Amino acid sequence: MPRTITAHRTRRTLLRTLFTAAVATTTATALAPLLAATREPHRPRAPRAPAELLFEETYRGRRIEGRGPGTPTAARTRPVGHHGSAGPRVTIDGRPLPLMRRADGSYLSVVDHYVSYPTPLAAARAAVDELGPARLAPGTGARNV
Q1: Which string of b and e fits 91-112 if b means at least 16 CB within 10 Å?
Q2: What is the DSSP string of 44-102?
Q3: Cα distance from N-terminal residue to C-terminal residue, the chain
Q4: Cβ–Cβ contacts within 10 Å for residue 51, how many?
Q5: pTM for the predicted model, two decimal places
Q6: Closest CA to 125 of 107, 138, 105, 142
Q7: What tens digit of pLDDT does each residue of 6-31 get?
Q8: 3-state secondary structure 105-145
Q9: Are 52 and 70 in contact (CB under 8 A)?
């Protein structure tokens, strides 16, 4: 028995409606946690304790500074990671020098990542030697002449 045109359109309309409802429900379920997080009241973060100065020196005309919690000995034993982790924060002329901690406790810098150094200060000095007259690019540790 042949189908009528209105029955075919009605089924197509029903299927489109069901598909649209399923997509909308899935999207709403996926976005609900994000929307809930934006509606929570803003709570200001507690002020951080100022980072202790671990070392500060002028090496070959460059100002090297290392800050972090704890003592210089503790700075050699804490893990170092990205984005505000517990490791020391080293700057050369005020620009951050990202350091990576190796499993053996030594350090690599993004400027010279083929050689490891026993301390963050040694890694910073080696970075100054490698950079020469160039400056660290802001936030990346790459050369910027």
Answers
A1: bbeeeebbbbbeeeebbbbbbe
A2: PPPPPPPPEEEEEEEETTEEEEEEESS-HHHHHHS---SSS-SS-EEEETTEEE-EEE-
A3: 80
A4: 13
A5: 0.55
A6: 107
A7: 666 788 888 899 999 998 889 888 88
A8: CCEEECCCCCCCECCHHHHHHHHHHHHCCCEECCCCCCEEC
A9: yes
